[in-house]
Amino acid sequence: MSAHLLENLNPEQRAAVTLPHESALILAGAGSGKTRVLTTRIVWLIQTGQVSPHGVLAVTFTNKAAKEMMTRISAMLPINTRGMWVGTFHGLANRLLRTHYREAGLPQSFQILDSQDQLSAIKRLMKAMNVDTEKYEPKKVQRFINSNKEAGHRARDAEAYDEYSMRLAELYEAYDAQCQREGVADFPELLLRAYELLYRNEPLRQHYQDRFRHILIDEFQDTNTLQYRWLKLFAGPHTALFAVGDDDQSIYAFRGANTANMAEFEREFAHGNVIKLEQNYRSHGHILTAANTLISQNAHRLGKNLWTAEGDGEPIRVFNAYSDQEEASFVVDEVRALNREGMNLSDMALLYRSNAQSRVLEHALFSASVPYRVYGGLRFFERQEVKHALAYLRLLTNPEDDGAFLRVVNFPTRGIGARTLEQLTDGAARAGMSLWQAACTGGGKVAGFAKLIEDIKQVTADLPLAEAIDHVIEASGLADYYRADKEGADRLENLNELVNAAALFSQETEENTYDATGEPAPGETESVRALDTFLAHAALEAGEHQAGAGHDALQLMTVHAAKGLEFHAVFITGLEESLFPHEQSANEESGLEEERRLMYVAITRARRRLYLSHAQSRMLHGQTRYSLPSRFLDELPEQVLLNLNRRSEPAYPSGGYHAPAPAPRSPQTGNDTGYKVGQSVAHAKFGTGIIIDFEGRGADARVQVKFRDVGTKWLALAYAKLSAA
DNA sequence: ACAAGTGTCCTTTTT
DNA sequence: GGACACTTGT
């Protein structure tokens, strides 16, 4: 049985899967079979009787990865995997807190705030405290709170050395008090609460440490400080930690991921028990060479070099476009050509650094009737109409939730305006009540709202989840509101979808094969528990980015979103200085290294064919910007590149992939110098740059040049020795 | 009380 | 270009 399991694994993979009961670090390069190793190890451990499903804790970062892992395990292991804890950090923390809510100091029906909810809670607090939001931007306050929580610091432990940060710490403290009062927890709070729960409660800690014999962590390079400490707390003296990660693919430092965790883990747990998976099963040789060469220019690495048994494959195609539009039409032409040759659109991906870049590409694809799918943007449970419905539901199960109250008290409009709410808020604060309580004791329109919620509560008390939600949508007036709205059809549709989602959710949790969000607690009111579990699910798993019409479509996404995916053909677009690497990251060494890792991730998504393109001019934020090619292009080995611009005609000005591009539309066209805006030039002293502006004629002519290394300068053409580059 | 108009700021993102 | 906050007008 287990011999069969280990077939088709290479020696390193097999060694990793069959490691003895010891902690180990698996450095798994891109495309090296990381997930396979992780899941096979779990199955192997169970099959060989070394652990029962009950003793396994497997942690991932995304719900998608957790589901994928569970699916693969169930496919290999025909036994009940219910006792296994597989989920995201937040999902598992939630599970722990729901089970031990009393010990954790939370109400049973505590609600989870997503980032949006958290931000509005902070704004509300700051308003109540009369804090100047110019001086203390709510977003910055949010970042302060979250980064402190993620470092394991409560307000009292927060580093505060000056007036400004001391004020931030005060806000943090007040914010936590508000959350406690309202019975809500934000994302980092889930982790910190769960951490503190186990840290302070010795018997509980003992219990879980004894239980989990094996802890396996996916994407370990993405863990933050708190998550690492969390894992250490779960690990008892008899627990083996199996951490899988790739420091070269760490692209989330900006949100707190701490790559140093890998080195630390090696020191604290693995003790030299490190296995490198370096054979890549995804990409052809030239693509890997490019990736290896690029990433070798990062100074801080654990060190790893991917290789493949495949041949070199095709060269990497580089295209220099005159404008973002030309870049887009180039991409469209290539995509169609590949599609004609038989490659599915869904096997091709268009990658970009930031979401704003997708529009030009979308426009070109749309005009050419190429089906495409964009990842990113609003997700199902984040849509305003869905959040409104959820707020009503939250109010039913947890009336202390002022955030939910304020969200829906006047939506649909009930004639309850700012003035009324101000009075209500003041009254509630003076009496030390929640808004809900204050509304119940008062009169007028606000009391009418309270009555409405009370009625809904009565009717839905014994209804199944989906029917309860359906009633809420009707009785609250949400449905009528969107029916009356000319543009409300989609929103109405989504509310319908919410009812369906709830029905599906009830069905799935009943079957209970996989339950990442809540432990069924015996003896509690059925429908209330179901509602709480569903609301937690909605917050923790915000749903798909877009309703997936499962047809063959080209895939558009940011490089971040592409991590973990692979495609036959990949287009990396917008390879320009200030865009990729992004200008806000390029200044710092660590920022630049992260951008380089991002580029590394992008390159290693490709199996057979890779296109790199950049545009000399680009519409961004309503302005045309001129940029130099990304330094990452220079960091690739020339022998694996194929410059498409040099196929038939000179590279400049249009690149001439197809029709020559129109002349630049600049008020200075038609000058007499032989230079134009957008052109790349070289200067003996300042290096290479690009002309971004122009003034004067003849002997007085001056050009403004944006140099890669020395910034932007005005140069008199009569004196500066410029040459075309 | 609320709709319509004006001004500001723009990474990346999962939970 | 577009989301979001804030101000003005009815």
TrEMBL record:
Keywords: ATP-binding, DNA-binding, Helicase, Hydrolase, Isomerase, Nucleotide-binding
SUPFAM superfamilies attached to this UniProt entry: P-loop containing nucleoside triphosphate hydrolases
Region (Disordered): 651-676
All residue ranges annotated as the UvrD-like helicase C-terminal domain in the record: 285-564
EC number(s) on file: 5.6.2.4
InterPro entries xrefs: DExx_box_DNA_helicase_dom_sf, DNA_helicase_UvrD-like_C, DNA_helicase_UvrD/REP, P-loop_NTPase, UvrD-like_ATP-bd
Pfam families in alphabetical order: PcrA_UvrD_tudor, UvrD-helicase, UvrD_C
Domain of life: Bacteria
GO terms for biological process, alphabetical: recombinational repair
Residue ranges constituting the UvrD-like helicase ATP-binding domain according to the UniProt record: 7-284
Catalysed conversion reaction: Couples ATP hydrolysis with the unwinding of duplex DNA by translocating in the 3'-5' direction; ATP + H2O = ADP + phosphate + H(+)
GO CC terms: cytosol; DNA helicase complex
Binding, ATP: 28-35
Any one GO molecular function term: DNA binding
Main enzyme class: isomerase
PANTHER family referenced in this protein's UniProt entry, alphabetically: ATP-DEPENDENT DNA HELICASE SRS2, UVRD / RECB / PCRA DNA HELICASE FAMILY MEMBER
Protein family: Belongs to the helicase family. UvrD subfamily.
Name of this chain's protein: DNA 3'-5' helicase
Native source organism of the sequence: Thiobacillus denitrificans
